[in-house]
Structure formats: structure tokens, C-alpha cells
Design a protein that fits this description.
Elements lengths: L22 E7 L5 E7 L15 E8 L1 E6 L6 E4 L3 E4 L5 E6 L5 E8 L1
Antiparallel strand pairs: 1-2, 2-8, 3-6, 3-8, 4-5, 4-7
């Protein structure tokens, strides 16, 4: 994928076959410290007992598929479908409980300082 120009629909590409592991791909990085990442999940979830606790804030949107995201400080899981997004503050503990097993889930994650 060309980092300087291109077609955003390319973010939906390279999806043939079942993925054993999630795919993480940096799409764009800026000198000011932001990073845009494409994540492709195929039924994966955070390991049991694992919580993300990231130093950068993260804005994440589901482009395709579905996922369940749980924040440690909330009782209910949030279900994200295509078009849904979340802003996750730095150091806020969260995990992915599940992603679609009948189709791939494509996320865009914008990491911000």
C-alpha cells in the first residue's frame, strides 16, 4: 500500500482465506507522533486475562465486521459494527472480547499522543 497516496478501498484488500493471526499494518505515520494502523481480525480476541493499557490515546473505527470491546471500568461490553467508533483514552484498560467468526473484521486505529 502506497503511504503517500492511493485509494482507501485498498484497506479492504488482501482478505483471502482464514487468518490464523491478526494482521497489523501501519498505513500512515506522522512526525507529530500519530500513527494510523489497519487491523484485520478473523475471529481473534485478546488472550484471557489480558488488558491493553496503551500510552497513546486511540480512536478506532470498525470498517467491516463486528467486535466486542470491554473496558475494565464499565460493566457492559460494547458491540461495534461497521461504522461504529470509539475514543480510548491513554492508559484506559480495555480488551477485545471477540471478533466476527463469519467474516473478517477490519479496524482502523488512529494512535494519538
Amino acid at each position: 500500500m502506497n503511504k503517500e497516496s492511493g485509494n482507501w478501498l485498498e484497506l479492504l484488500g488482501n482478505l483471502q482465506g482464514k487468518l490464523d493471526d491478526e494482521v497489523f499494518e501501519n498505513v500512515l505515520e506522522g512526525e507529530s507522533g500519530f500513527r494510523l494502523e489497519r487491523i484485520v481480525s478473523d475471529g481473534q480476541a485478546s488472550p484471557e486475562g489480558f488488558w491493553y493499557e496503551q500510552e497513546m490515546a486511540e480512536w478506532v473505527i470498525v470498517i467491516m465486521g463486528e467486535a466486542g470491546v470491554k473496558f475494565e471500568d464499565e460493566d457492559e461490553e460494547r458491540v461495534l459494527k461497521a461504522g461504529d467508533y470509539l475514543m480510548i483514552d491513554a492508559m484506559r484498560r480495555h480488551r477485545v472480547n471477540w471478533t466476527s467468526d463469519h467474516e473478517k473484521t477490519i479496524w482502523l486505529a488512529l494512535h494519538l499522543k
